[in-house]
């Protein structure tokens, strides 16, 4: 009866996860251990068995060891979420906490700095050492410091400034675009400079300072908001 209760709890937990969420064995096992007050190792064993059975039945899809995703049935057959989208989400937010951010050429495209759309999505994340499922078009970067809810926007922007000289930029006024982004995101210009001085090469600090000084309104207006 106890084992049956484990299985029902795991099934319910998985079904309550949104379609675009990664299903992680570790996360499900921790919830099971808490719910039934059992050792984590025992919960993980039960979770491994149940998730494998669900995958064998086609209820979920195994992406790699310990990682699954939801499955939907359509008139065209089995449908799963876009693997890049769900992995980017998983690499940037975990349990409601920010652990990473998009960077690189894909971000520059999104900001309107370039029309070039790269095949790979670059993500700077605390999980930079993770093994990604086959078929992912994601490149992991180690962030300059551990990503948090408080610092990720600053690290993301300084990354753009650092990468700008070597990027394919075809926007007419890239500096204006970036300064408008600073204001739109309500980034504090002095905090940007202090963060860059603490973590990035001197060349990047000079590029950032020059950008903010030349931008629409300069540092003072950007900092005030």
UniProtKB/TrEMBL annotation:
Pfam families: DUF6088
Organism domain of life: Bacteria
Descriptive protein name: Type IV toxin-antitoxin system AbiEi family antitoxin domain-containing protein
Organism whose genome encodes this protein: Eisenbergiella tayi
């Amino acid at each position: 009866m106890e084992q049956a209760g484990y299985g029902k709890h795991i099934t319910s937990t998985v079904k309550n996860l949104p379609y675009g969420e990664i299903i992680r064995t570790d996360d499900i096992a921790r919830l099971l251990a808490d719910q039934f007050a059992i050792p984590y190792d025992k919960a993980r064993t039960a979770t491994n068995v149940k998730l494998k059975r669900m995958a064998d039945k086609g209820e979920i899809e195994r992406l790699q060891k310990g990682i699954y995703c939801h499955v939907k049935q359509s008139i065209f057959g089995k449908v799963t979420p876009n693997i890049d989208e769900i992995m980017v989400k998983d690499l940037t937010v975990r349990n409601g906490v920010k652990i990473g951010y998009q960077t690189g050429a894909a971000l520059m495209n999104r900001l309107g700095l370039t029309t070039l759309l790269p095949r790979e999505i670059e993500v700077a994340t605390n999980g930079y050492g993770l093994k990604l499922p086959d078929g992912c078009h994601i490149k992991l970067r180690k962030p300059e410091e551990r990503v948090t809810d408080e610092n990720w926007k600053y690290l993301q922007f300084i990354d753009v400034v650092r990468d700008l000289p070597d990027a394919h930029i075809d926007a007419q006024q890239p500096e204006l675009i970036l300064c408008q982004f600073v204001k739109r995101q309500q980034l504090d210009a002095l905090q940007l400079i202090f963060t860059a001085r603490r973590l990035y090469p001197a060349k990047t600090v000079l590029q950032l300072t020059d950008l903010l000084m030349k931008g629409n309104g300069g540092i003072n207006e950007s900092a005030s908001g």
